[in-house]
Write a structure and sequence with these properties.
Arc Repressor Mutant, subunit A, two-stranded antiparallel ribbon, D-Maltodextrin-Binding Protein, domain 2, single chain, 12 strands, 3 domains
Length: 309
């Protein structure tokens, strides 16, 4: 069952508040709970939804003494209402952004290995725009992609994946290499770059499968008869590097992961698939907040990544 053309035309001129009230009742299944949620009386919310139904010429909600549920028309109408409210909120964001970033928020996601690299950019952004609330998330590349698609993030910083959704656009920040990493004494005499076949001779602490560096390592090993000596796995790059710093264990990560750890050294792996592209990613066609653009500018001007090309 679909909305007829007359209803779609009326949909364009109805009040946003009526749509918000309808969505709240649909979510909570109750006029009483919805009225408390939006801080108006139950009679007002009922009256406004009644006007909405009158404009559309259909009943959106089925009411009885105890329950409220969506009618067939309501089920078809729900995604349209959600889309209109989402677009209205995007318009509000755009208007607020012109106020010199005195208000607003920015959601930034990064893969686990990028946390240390973003530190200075985050500090610089906060110093310049202290009233913009930062929401920071660390996750795998696949999780970051999904969060972008769900509009939970404004921008994600991660290595470019070989499997990237066409709805996501990526811009390169720097190029790096997958490296064998360890204390300098443990890697003394290791050839530079290190052949893939030599990786089997070292005790390793590796990130879990599904994390970017581990997936790239699996790609490098494909077609080679190499059995790695994996002693432990962890989902925290910081923890892995701490273990490597304090033991004979080695790891395999991007080279920039040890830029601030003088006791560790990184030797590139001799393989064409060891090339890693550090990128920022955003959703194609989505509104780009001014805060997002400023954050990228600071990220670039810091030359944080350019030193590792």
């Amino acid at each position: 069952m679909h909305l007829n053309q007359q209803a779609e035309l009326k949909l364009k001129i109805m009040e946003l508040r009526q749509l918000k009230y309808f969505l709240e009742v649909a979510k909570l299944g109750s006029f009483s709970l919805a009225s408390k949620s939006v801080f108006i009386t139950q009679s007002t919310i009922s009256q406004q939804i009644g006007k909405l139904e009158e404009e559309l010429g259909v009943k959106l909600l089925i009411r009885d003494s105890r329950h409220v549920c969506l009618s067939d028309y309501g089920e078809q109408f729900l995604p349209h209402a959600m889309k209109i409210i989402e677009e209205a909120e995007l318009c509000s964001d755009a208007i607020r952004d012109v106020k010199d970033l005195h208000h607003g928020s920015l959601s930034v996601g990064s893969s686990y290995s990028f946390g240390p690299l973003l530190r200075q950019t985050i500090l610089d952004f906060y110093e310049r725009y202290p009233h913009v609330r930062l929401h920071l998330v660390s996750a795998s590349t696949a999780e970051l992609q999904q969060k972008l698609l769900n509009r939970e993030l404004d921008i994600a910083i991660a290595y470019k994946s070989s499997i990237l959704d066409e709805r996501i656009e990526s811009r390169m920040l720097f190029e790096n290499r997958l490296c064998l990493i360890g204390r300098k004494d443990e890697l003394a005499g290791c050839p530079n770059p290190v052949p893939v076949e030599m990786l089997s001779k070292y005790p390793l602490a590796l990130p879990y499968k599904g994390m970017q560096a581990r997936d790239m390592l699996e790609s490098v090993l494909f077609g080679h008869n190499v059995n790695l000596d994996i002693r432990m796995e962890h989902n925290s790059i910081h923890t892995i590097l701490s273990l490597v710093h304090s033991s004979p264990l080695l790891t395999i990560l991007s080279g920039e992961a040890v830029q601030d750890i003088k006791a560790l050294t990184a030797i590139p792996i001799d393989h064409p698939e060891s090339r890693m592209l550090g990128c920022y990613h955003f959703l194609k066609g989505a509104y780009r907040k001014k805060a997002t653009k400023v954050f990228i500018d600071i990220l670039t001007e810091n030359n944080l990544y350019n030193n590792h090309q």
